[in-house]
Amino acid sequence: MTTIQIDHVSRWYRNVVAVNDITMTIGPGVTGLLGPNGAGKSTLIALMSGFLAPSTGTVTLDGDPLWRNEQVYREIGLVPEREALFDYLTGRQFVVANAELHGLPDPGAAAQRALALIEMTDAQDRTISTYSKGMKQRIKMASALVHDPSVLLLDEPFNGMDPRQRIHLMELLRTMGAEGRTVLFSSHILEEVEQVARQIEVVVAGRHAASGDFGAIRRLMTDRPNRFVLRTSDDRTMASALLADASVRGARLRSEGGIELEASDFGRFSEVLPRLAREHGIRLHEVTPTDESLESVFAYLVST
Ligand SMILES: Nc1ncnc2c1ncn2[C@@H]1O[C@H](COP(=O)(O)OP(=O)(O)OP(=O)(O)O)[C@@H](O)[C@H]1O
Predict the structure, then answer these.
(1) CB 18 less than 6 A from any atom of ligand 1
(2) What is the pLDDT of residues 9-40, one digit of tens each?
(3) What ipTM, to 2 d.p.?
(4) Is the minimum distance from the CB of 52 to ligand 1 under 6 angstroms?
């Protein structure tokens, strides 16, 4: 059982905060790291693979720090996003080279095992330049798996794949997860993530915005945020009318004007609010959700 623990980690590049105080635990099975472009996913993966030092906080693998720790690198396989492969090598030569870099006792045998695992045995003697996008992705996977790591990290592995390649890779990831490996892949597409991941971690603008299984993330889309600030033409009347309804848990008049409100049932609240306003002849000037993390997740999820 291998677990990556990210503890209050921030990482900035000069004045850009790419990862902002993130705490999360990645355990065995398949985890999807979901977030829009620029959310900080690649930075998180680089931190988890020991390629990047956190600016603050710690990243550990079963309790051992990852940064500059050769011992734990042996446990990790990384499939990077970029395509910088050595096009003039054959698939086999590329995987063998990685086995040699790891100092494995029998690089040839290790490469054959990895190539078989991702079903690239038949194509192993062709040069990488002749491979399709999906094959390139698989050869990167074979080289990441050549030392039989317990952790596999993949950065946007489905990008540019056709549907058949996508299904094949999903199968592979599921198998790896079922074998007890800790598999994490990043994506900006919810549907892609929920098809294969047991656990989903959502990052938005460098922050950890949500965490849970597919059901929990989907519920965020329907439950919607439940804290709001309202500005109306008659806050006092509006607040007491709202408080009388079962969809509202609490409402308070703010000293600076407006109503601070907590809804217990968003669906019903969204119907009741305009109806009550109409009944009392009150104009609604502003309805703003104040539950920022949920709102950002929601805005992101519905925009994809
Ligand atoms: N080496 C770097 N120098 C400066 N800024 C960087 C660097 N790497 C990333 N960033 C910035 O950090 C933020 C997070 O980037 P990151 O690549 O981690 O996000 P991402 O979610 O992987 O996005 P993408 O899918 O577009 O790669 C972005 O604003 C990005 O511009």
Answers:
(1) yes
(2) 999 998 899 999 999 999 999 999 998 888 99
(3) 0.93
(4) no
Mutate which of 43, 51, 78 for ligand 1? The one with the most ligand atoms within 8 Å of its CB, which is 43
Q: What are the structural domains, with CATH classification, of the chain?
A: 4-221 (3.40.50.300), 225-290 (3.30.70.100)
Of 210, 230, 178, the residue nearest 300 (C-alpha): 210
Query: Between the CA atoms of 104, 60, 35 and 225, what dihedral angle is there, to the nearest 10 degrees?
Result: 150
Structure tokens at 98: 């990685």
Q: Ligand 1: does its nearest atom lie under 6 Å from the Cβ of 40?
A: yes
Q: Which numbered atom of ligand 1 lies nearest the CA of 206?
A: 14
- 117-145, pLDDT tens digit by residue? 888 999 999 999 999 888 888 899 999 99
CA of 60 to the centre of ligand 1 (A): 22
The residue among 221, 140, 204, 176 whose CA lies nearest residue 29 is 176
